[in-house]
Design a protein that fits this description.
The protein is built from two helices and four strands, in the order ββαβαβ. The protein is an alpha+beta fold.
């Protein structure tokens, strides 16, 4: 209900526009800038194999952009999502030569 004068026009209703949808991205960066931005395709499930393939892409990007970085240790801080704890994802971290930092309890 809305207070209005009897002779005034009815209130205008705004038309809503559908949103563009959600876009999910995984971003890897270091102190010098962004290394890799990977947009996850629509209706794709993030699982251990997908995470492992993403880490291999990251290693290739480091090799292309900052080749000296691989001679030293690469410290990787992943969030505590269950995907990153899968055996295949943990094996990919080791295969790439990354050292994973653990989150404090």
């Amino acid at each position: 209900m809305q207070w209005r004068h009897a002779s005034s026009s009815p209130p205008r209703k705004f038309k809503t526009q559908p949103s563009a949808g959600k876009i999910m991205a995984t971003i890897f960066w270091d102190s010098k800038g962004v290394l890799l931005i990977h947009y996850i395709p629509d209706k794709t499930t993030m699982n251990g194999q997908y995470c492992a393939n993403l880490l291999l892409k990251l290693r290739q990007e480091i090799k292309d952009k900052r080749y000296r970085m691989l001679t030293r240790r690469v410290w990787l801080l992943l969030n505590n999502s269950p995907v990153h704890k899968f055996t295949i994802a943990q094996q990919a971290v080791c295969d790439c030569g990354f050292v994973q930092l653990d989150h404090p309890a």
